[in-house]
Amino acid sequence: MVKLGQSSFRRILLSRILLLSVPVLLVGEYVTYRKARSTLLETARQNLTESAVRKADTIEQWAKSLKSNLIGASESSMLQSVDPKDYQKFIAQLGQRLPAQVDCLQLTNLKTNQVIASTCGQQPIQSLPAKFWPPVQQQQTLLDEKSVYISLSLPPQRQGTANDRKAALGAEDFPDAGKEGSDSQASLVLSAPVYIRRGNTLQLSYALSLQSALPVQTSAPKGSLAGYTVAIDQDGTILAHPNVNRVGRNIDAEADAARLKSIVRRAIAGGTAFLHLFSFERNGVELLAGYAAIPSPSTTQENSKWIILAVSRLDYALSGLEEIQQVLFNLIVGLVAASIIATLYLSRDLARPVEKLRDYAMKVDTEASQTVPQDFQIREFNQLSEALNSMVQRLRAWAKELEVATKEAQVANQLKNEFLGNISHELRTPLNGIIGFIQIVRDGYCDDRDEEMEFLQRAHDSSMQLLNIINDILDIAKIESGTFSMMLEVVDITQVLEDAIDLQATQIEEKGLKLSLPEPHDPIIVHADPEKLKQVFLNILSNAVKFTESGSISISVRLESRTNSASFNGSGESTTGPSGQSDWVVVTIKDTGIGIDPEHQQKLFQPFVMADGSTTRRFGGNGLGLAISRRIMESMIGSITLHSAGVNQGTTVMISLPVNQQSSFYFHSPDLVTEKGNSKS
Predict the structure, then answer these.
(1) Which among 246, 283, 228 is positioned nearest to 167, based on CA atoms?
(2) What pLDDT sits at residue 589?
(3) In whole angstroms, what is the distance from residue 310 CA to residue 54 CA?
(4) Edge-to-edge strands of the sheet including 485-486?
(5) Which contiguous run of DSSP H or E holds residue 396?
(6) Nearest residue to 505 via CA among 469, 483, 538
(7) Can you spell out the DSSP letters for 423-450?
(8) Phi, psi at 142, each rounded to 5°
(9) According to the 3-state scheme, what is the secondary structure of 290-306?
(10) Which is nearest to 298 in space by CA: 394, 191, 199, 433?
(11) CA angle, 355 as apex, 349 and 357 as ends, to 5°?
(12) Pseudo-torsion of CA 460, 461, 464, 466, nearest 10°?
């Protein structure tokens, strides 16, 4: 009957497989996802670091290019040969030939500090220093970079809602910020002297100035690994940033000031690496920044540095992870579905044989016999089927044996009850005789001394009969408990047989039975306990006399050779000859009595068992003689067998012992325990 809390084998198998496979798949997918993320992150870090180095090189080359172009333009012979009224045209043409990064080009009269030609209006782009260049040159001398005056121009702080909105956003949210003009980022303003020949000397007359904003990338689209550019001066001033309101501010005012300062320190020390920023843009947006340092283009100091950053949002840098995540999600869904389908098939293939074997086992006790299921695809189930079939066959055989044993137990129980009734009768009969005869003598009812002696003799005979019964019971009790003892010695078996016959001669004569004795024979020496051997002979002769109403009892003695592997002669030495032959003496006692049914013959050697109760009631007896006799013969390495053709066809009993010609000594067998000179069986 199915109990609460139980489940089917198929359901348990399915749930257990899924319980094991699904977590393994999830863990595998998670490990794969983490590995892909770490790989992409490492790639982004490396790319941003390389991008920062490239951006730094670009800015450094940009500054050098501005200086060389400016020096070349200031030394142009055309500038000295052009009429002053054509300077504006010349400057306009020169501005077209210069690189596109130049936002403004001006020519300033140093004597009057007036802008005489400009591409961006008349407002000076920088305040020129006094006495920075020598006023006169004695001869034409080529200018070098030290002759260029450089200043840094920061854009004015923006006001208004539009810029405020941009200040609240990240650079990736306004990719067109760099299109606002030269004043959106920090600019370099470079000025070079222009010498005009006056007679034999070159006199300082003009200053050629240009302004160019830092060439920075102000956008970092999703998926880009280059990042947008941020430039920071050594003192912490932000020189370039997609958010123009950040330009000109010091990093001390930033929420991520500590990390920005760490970047500045590491870059100045010569490092090129990366660092994560958490509050440089919007709160909660993690940034990844690669950094590198270049010499400051705005000063001639040797140790002054600019720090160039390539910055990108972490989720933008890992944008490829979304596709990987989608692929992994689709993969895990497919694997889980495939796992479920495979598990269903697997559970079916495993559960179906078990269910068939279960059905067979549940119906095996019905009347309609069924064949055990076989030919499964799994070898172990076929083996289990064969084992189950074999077990069922054994159980059926055991059931039959149990049925037979039950019947035998019922018979044995019946015989036990009969034995108890018979043994009580056997005990009471001589006991009553003893009591009656003694009471007659005690009360003086005897006429003379001879009559008293006769009653006393009868009482003595009854007591001896009672003693024999009690001795049999004690012997079988000792045999069952393993304390039955005997003393073995060298004896003449014919002499022991004659003594037993003499004790039964009177009863044989009283019943008028014909006794056939063996012919005179030379002594046959065996190793046995003479008293116990005599007891065996007496038991057999007593049964022959008791169960033979008329006819004869014949006794014979013969020697025979037996082939066996090892026969013991009682001394522990084998009498087996070279050919494996040994001599045995066989005493045969045959009667013409009531006989025994062949079905009951083996039972007779069991304690308390007789052929049937009617025999016991008719002839008396306790059913212990044959059981005691067999155990005695087995203890003396002999045997006793009984044969009868059937009821009223007589009985033949054969008693066998190995012949021994050696002198007397105690026999020890594995079944006997020596104790004070006696061998205990």
Answers:
(1) 246
(2) 93
(3) 9
(4) 485-486, 678-680, 673-675
(5) helix 379-443
(6) 538
(7) HHHHHHHHHHHHHHHHHHHHHT--SSHH
(8) -70, 135
(9) EEEEEECCCCCCCCCEE
(10) 191
(11) 110
(12) -100
> Residue 238 CB: number of other CB atoms within 10 A?
24
Distance, CA of 656 to CA of 640 (rounded, Å): 6
Residue type, 182: S
Give the span between the Cα atoms of 609 and 603, in whole angstroms: 6
Over residues 209-246, the pLDDT tens digits come to: 998 888 888 777 777 778 888 999 988 898 888 888 88
| Pairing mode, strands 514-516 and 552-563 | parallel
Cα separation, 387 vs 293, in Å, equals: 83
Question: Per-residue confidence at 555, pLDDT binned at 50, 70, 90?
Answer: very high
- How far apart CA 110 and CA 196 sit, in angstroms, is 12
In the chain, the largest separation of any two C-alpha atoms, in whole Å, equals: 203
Q: 284: exposed, middle or buried (C-beta count within 10 Å: 0-12, 13-18, 19+)?
A: exposed
480 Cβ contact partners less than 8 Å away, ≥ 6 residues apart: 607
pLDDT in tens, 294-351: 898 888 777 888 999 988 888 887 877 778 888 888 888 888 888 788 777 777 777 7
Kindly state the tokens that stand for 365.
């006790």
How many residues would you count in the chain?
A: 681
**Tokens for 34?**
């983490």
The answer to whether the CB of 51 falls within 8 A of the CB of 225 is yes
Cβ atoms of 19 and 254 closer than 8 Å: no
SS3 170: coil
Identity at 65, one-letter amino acid code: S
- Token readout for 535 is 């007891």
Residues 6 or more apart in contact with residue 40 via CB below 8 angstroms = 317, 318, 320, 321, 324
Strands 287-295 and 305-313 turn out to be antiparallel
Q: Are strands 273-277 and 639-643 parallel, antiparallel or unpaired?
A: unpaired
What is the spatial distance between Cα 540 and Cα 99, in angstroms, rounded to a whole number? 143
Measure the CA–CA gap between 81 and 77, rounded to whole angstroms: 6
pTM attached to this predicted model: 0.50
